[in-house]
Specification:
The protein is mainly α. 66% of the residues lie in helices and 0% in strands.
């Protein structure tokens, strides 16, 4: 069921739609220019992002501490001397 406020709001929108001239409202040349500029900006951003992503090296390099840590784990650790 519709409430009184939604019915009132709907009647206001219907009256606005009747006074709306459909022949005068078009995106026109300005709308096309704005759309084309946004499309060009997105294309340039995607091109730049692709260039930056090609620079990224995804292969992980082992750190110096990790390479020595695996070899020392195989040998028993010596306990510190206490005097």
């Amino acid at each position: 069921m519709m409430s009184a406020t939604s019915t009132l709001a709907l009647t206001h929108f219907v009256t606005l739609a009747d006074t709306f001239d459909k022949d005068k409202v078009t995106p026109g040349v300005l709308g096309f220019i704005v759309f084309a500029v946004i499309g060009g900006a997105v294309w340039l951003l995607m091109k730049s992002m692709n260039k930056q992503m090609k620079k990224v090296d995804f292969e992980e390099q082992p750190e110096d501490g990790e390479a020595g840590g695996t070899a020392s784990a195989a040998t028993p650790a010596t306990e510190p001397k206490t005097s």
